[in-house]
């Protein structure tokens, strides 16, 4: 531990001189944050504002030396979220300046994402900005990536309300502030108050439980109001399933939507690229129409290019699950999840979309881990599980682990620790 008596303005000046020559000594930035925390308690608001301005000036100088300094960018974020009077418009202008100097610097794009998250300018302005940058350089990957993030909106994809718990799944991770301001559960036309609990214990999560004392039984009216980012309101009505279980599903689509000129350009280039690029183009043009062809191409690539077989298997899993998800959300009204395609899963993308399921059959896959919050019966038969460490706490009645490569001692201990029926 550093002595508080050593953390003063003199040390602030000394570390500043060193960082001006080498901005990537993260220990010195840590010391500066400790000093600034102490000064916050003793200085007047005006003096503190000047100190923070000087710190921003230092980071700006350091970024001129190394525009890709993680430490300097992080320090700048810390200062702006710590001080009482951040000027976010000035920061946005700084991003514009830096991106004129280096339009591909992903550090600046990442920082811009942080700034926009704080000042929340109209998304159209950010979208137009990326258009301008892409006109300058169509191959600017960082701009494309940022543009995709701007277009991606958060949606409530599915929820379930039962006598035991109410779960809510989102397309992207959200926090409690988002939930309390955007989501409301209504039972018999009365809003339900409760406590939001993350399923993983993280500040941001895609899956949340609302703990409340309202009685859930057959014959009640259940709905959820969700306020979208454009200010509009969606009402998702819960449909009753067995034993007072209500599930509300939103409309989902994983199809990327491109303008007609872009689609025409993709189609015209199909015969000009390698098998992987062609497969990606086909998926972008119409994922449903070309699904079988794309999966066949990826299976061929797994054989041809063994060094990247894992990457191709990951794409197969992701796109196959997306294909089944769209069908399940439209046609399947049960509380079960079963893989309906031949390709083996190596992971579970979009897992939150199946959070309402009570009976999940994931047997004969290539999985190494799993987590679902509402299960009663889970089959992980004939997978590739090698350990049961960090296995999620689930309120199961039955778990099938036959055909996995598990140590006998671990199996016995796991069986002692769990109250549900386990099949080995």
From TrEMBL:
EC code: 2.5.1.60
SUPFAM superfamilies: L domain-like (SSF52058), Protein prenylyltransferase (SSF48439)
UniProt function note: Catalyzes the transfer of a geranyl-geranyl moiety from geranyl-geranyl pyrophosphate to cysteines occuring in specific C-terminal amino acid sequences.
Protein name: Geranylgeranyl transferase type-2 subunit alpha
Natural source organism: Operophtera brumata
Domain of life: Eukaryota
Keywords, sorted A to Z: Prenyltransferase, Repeat, Transferase
KW Repeat (keyword) present: yes
Keyword Repeat in record: yes
Catalytic activity: geranylgeranyl diphosphate + L-cysteinyl-[protein] = S-geranylgeranyl-L-cysteinyl-[protein] + diphosphate
Family per similarity comment: Belongs to the protein prenyltransferase subunit alpha family.
Gene Ontology CC annotations of this record: Rab-protein geranylgeranyltransferase complex
Gene3D superfamilies named in the record: Protein prenylyltransferase, Ribonuclease Inhibitor
GO MF annotation: an example: Rab geranylgeranyltransferase activity
Annotated GO biological process: prenylation
């Amino acid at each position: 531990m550093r002595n508080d008596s050593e953390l003063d303005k003199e040390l602030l000046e000394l570390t500043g001189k060193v960082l001006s020559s080498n901005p990537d000594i993260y220990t010195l930035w840590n010391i500066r944050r400790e000093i600034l925390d102490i000064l916050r308690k003793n200085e007047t608001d005006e003096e503190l504002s000047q100190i923070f301005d000087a710190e921003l000036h230092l980071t700006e100088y350091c970024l001129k030396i190394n525009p890709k300094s993680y430490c300097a960018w992080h320090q700048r974020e810390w200062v702006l979220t710590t001080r009482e009077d951040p000027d976010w418009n000035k920061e946005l202008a700084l991003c514009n300046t830096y991106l004129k100097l280096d339009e591909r610097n992903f550090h600046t794009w990442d920082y811009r994402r942080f700034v926009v998250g704080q000042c929340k300018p109209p998304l159209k302005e950010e979208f137009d900005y990326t258009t301008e940058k892409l006109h300058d350089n169509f191959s600017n990957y960082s701009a494309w990536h940022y543009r995709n993030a701007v277009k991606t909106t958060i949606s409530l994809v599915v929820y379930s309300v039962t006598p035991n718990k109410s779960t809510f799944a989102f397309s992207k991770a959200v926090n409690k502030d988002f939930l309390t301001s955007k989501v409301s559960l209504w039972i018999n036309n009365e809003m339900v108050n409760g406590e939001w609990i993350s399923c993983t214990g993280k500040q941001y999560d895609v899956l949340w439980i609302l703990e409340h004392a309202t009685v859930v039984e057959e014959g009640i009216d259940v709905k959820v109001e969700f306020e979208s980012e454009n200010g509009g309101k969606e009402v998702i009505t819960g449909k009753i399933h067995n034993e007072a279980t209500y599930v509300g599903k939103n409309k989902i689509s994983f199809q990327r939507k491109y303008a007609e000129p872009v689609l025409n350009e993709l189609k015209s280039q199909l015969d000009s690229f390698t098998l992987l690029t062609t497969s990606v183009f086909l998926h972008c043009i119409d994922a449903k129409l070309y699904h079988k062809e794309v999966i066949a191409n990826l299976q061929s690539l797994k054989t041809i290019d063994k060094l990247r077989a894992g990457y191709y298997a990951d794409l197969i899993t992701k796109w196959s699950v997306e294909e089944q998800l769209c069908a399940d959300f439209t046609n399947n009204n049960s509380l079960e999840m079963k893989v309906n395609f031949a390709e083996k899963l190596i992971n579970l993308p979009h897992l939150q979309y199946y959070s309402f399921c009570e009976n999940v059959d994931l047997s004969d896959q290539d999985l190494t881990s799993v987590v679902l919050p509402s299960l009663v019966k889970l089959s992980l038969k004939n997978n590739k599980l090698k350990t049961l460490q960090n296995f999620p706490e689930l309120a199961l009645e039955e778990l099938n682990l036959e055909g996995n490569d598990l140590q006998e001692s671990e199996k016995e201990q796991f069986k002692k620790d769990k109250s549900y029926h386990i099949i080995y």
